[in-house]
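Thread: "does anyone have the structure for this chain?"

Original post by V.I.:
We have the sequence but no experimental structure in hand. Need at least a predicted one for the grant figures.
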Amino acid sequence: MNKSLVEKSRNFYVKTYLQKSITTWKAFVLYKKEKNMFQTKLIEKVSKLYNSNLLHKYFMIWISLHNSTKVFNEQLQMVLHHYNKKVLNRYFLGWVAYYNTKKQNKDVLDRADQQYRQKLLKRCLKQFNLGLGTVVLSGFKNTQHHA
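Reply from O.Q.:
Generated one for you, tokens below.
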């Protein structure tokens, strides 16, 4: 009888308590797995959100830096264009005025030289004609004396 009672109690234990403890243990294990899965998913979502916010933050910083660099380059181009225009106006226009003045002075000197040459040529021609006239007259007088 003792044996049968032990066996009955063992069977009862296996059926009742062992099965209850196993089902409780299984439920606990499932709960832990679900909790771990939930925590894993939560961690993934939080990291995604953090990474996207971080990415957005630094992307916006990069965009603003890029835009400010682009604006700076455009402003630098405008400043250089303005500077080149001012330098061109200051020095090139000064050079053009100097060149025009030099050209006018040269033209005036050339005209003065030309006028002087013409005047000198007229004088020399007049003197030549007078000298030729006296030579012709003296030659004419000489031919009349010999005839």
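V.I.: this helps a lot. The mean pLDDT is 85.
O.Q.: and The chain has one helix and no strands.
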